[in-house]
């Protein structure tokens, strides 16, 4: 199965480091991040999960729940978490899915045979409260993800949903945003009271709306 942007994220039951879960029940009305890692007890993954753990307050601010996955078992996850906590000076509180039969990995297309016939690649999905897939990023096993970028995209998606704007290249929270082409400049001036700066009829900026 190949999942694309805008698709409904498939539901599933899973064993995790924190017990059995139903994916939809775990997410509830929150945004969600589901990300796979190639294996437990590997160096890049150890740094990734440690950094993700340190971002808990940032994800909480954004109403977002995080859940990881690999094809290792629950016992391996639980023992590896001790190493993560020790070496990364954190406390992992999000669940890690034990996908030993690879059913969830195959459901979400996390195994790419030309990269590895058995291990999951370094994929990540952002899922909105309607269970729609809003972002898909896949990295090679040798490259750790940039979770600051994940937060940036999450901010952009949530801002765009709430205020019907778009975000330009290298945008960060607080920067000017773009008025979508579907809104006329006349209407934009009514919708965005902070003002509209027109560079071209199709390229218009406005200060970021209050969130």
UniProtKB/TrEMBL annotation:
Keywords: Antioxidant, Oxidoreductase, Peroxidase, Redox-active center
Chain ranges of the Thioredoxin domain: 3-159
Root EC class: oxidoreductase
Pfam families per UniProt: 1-cysPrx_C (PF10417), AhpC-TSA (PF00578)
GO molecular function: thioredoxin-dependent peroxiredoxin activity
PANTHER family: MCG48959-RELATED, PEROXIREDOXIN-6
Species of the source: Chryseobacterium salviniae
EC number(s) from the headed UniProt entry: 1.11.1.24
UniProt family annotation: Belongs to the peroxiredoxin family. AhpC/Prx1 subfamily. Belongs to the peroxiredoxin family. Prx6 subfamily.
Domain of life: Bacteria
Keyword field contains Oxidoreductase: yes
Keyword Transcription regulation appears in the UniProt entry: no
Protein name: Peroxiredoxin
């Amino acid at each position: 199965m190949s999942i694309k942007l805008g698709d409904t994220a498939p539901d599933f039951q899973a064993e995790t480091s924190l017990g059995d879960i139903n994916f939809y029940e775990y997410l509830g009305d929150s945004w969600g991040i589901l990300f796979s890692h190639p294996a437990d007890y590997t160096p890049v993954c150890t740094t990734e999960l440690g950094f993700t753990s340190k971002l808990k307050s940032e994800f909480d601010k954004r109403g977002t729940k995080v859940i990881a996955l690999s094809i290792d078992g629950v016992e391996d996850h639980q023992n590896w978490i001790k190493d993560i906590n020790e070496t990364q000076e954190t406390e992992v509180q999000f669940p890690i899915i034990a996908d030993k039969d690879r059913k969830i990995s195959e459901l979400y297309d996390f195994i790419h045979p030309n990269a590895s016939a058995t291990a999951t690649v370094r994929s990540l999905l952002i899922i909105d409260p309607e269970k729609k897939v809003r972002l898909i990023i896949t990295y090679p096993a040798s490259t750790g993800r940039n979770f600051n970028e994940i937060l940036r995209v999450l901010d952009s998606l949530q801002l765009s949903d709430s205020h019907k704007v778009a975000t330009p290249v290298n945008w960060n929270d607080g920067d000017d945003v773009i008025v979508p082409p579907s809104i006329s400049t006349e209407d934009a001036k009514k919708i965005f009271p902070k003002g509209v700066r027109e560079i071209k009829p199709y390229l218009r900026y406005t200060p970021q709306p209050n969130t």
